[in-house]
Amino acid sequence: MSYYFTIIGTRDNPLFEIDFGTHKLGGDGVARFRDEAKHMNQFIVHAALDMVEEAQWMGKDLYLRRVDTFQNNHVHCFLTGGNVKFMLLMNPDPTASSYASYRSPPPSRPSTARQSASMLAANPSSQATEDAVRQFMLEVYEAWLKCIMNPFYQVNNVVTSPIFRGRVATAAKKYL
Predict the structure, then answer these.
(1) What top-level class would CATH report for the domain 2-98+122-175?
(2) Where is the signal peptide (predicted)?
(3) How do residues 126-153 score in pLDDT, each as one tens digit?
């Protein structure tokens, strides 16, 4: 399973980006996105912002769960109090996504038989997946609060802190 995590500012500008793979069931933590997917991930996440705008007024929770799906990708969102969006794109099987061919409908399930039922990728809409993503988002939110409390940080500026990047990677390793 591969992940693309980004933080979107109040002006819909990216403040932070990282991609990583799963550490569960012997994963090495390296994202396995195809070359064209690395650029498409940004488009998919930004296209999901419209769904976030609609979903944020539907309830009172900051974690909006899965807000959008495109082909084999699932986008989850967490809102902060300052309307900064944490967006996580999850792709259960990056080799099954072909962005070059839109003619055929996407498969309803990943096309690999070797995936275990206990793996998060086996059912991206399961409660276990939602709980893991929620815990990941909450831990990143805690790191985000510490980052923006820095008196030298200005709102909507790109986050370049290696400490913050490390904390996001540690949360990913722990939950995803």
Answers:
(1) alpha beta
(2) none
(3) 788 889 999 999 999 999 999 999 998 8
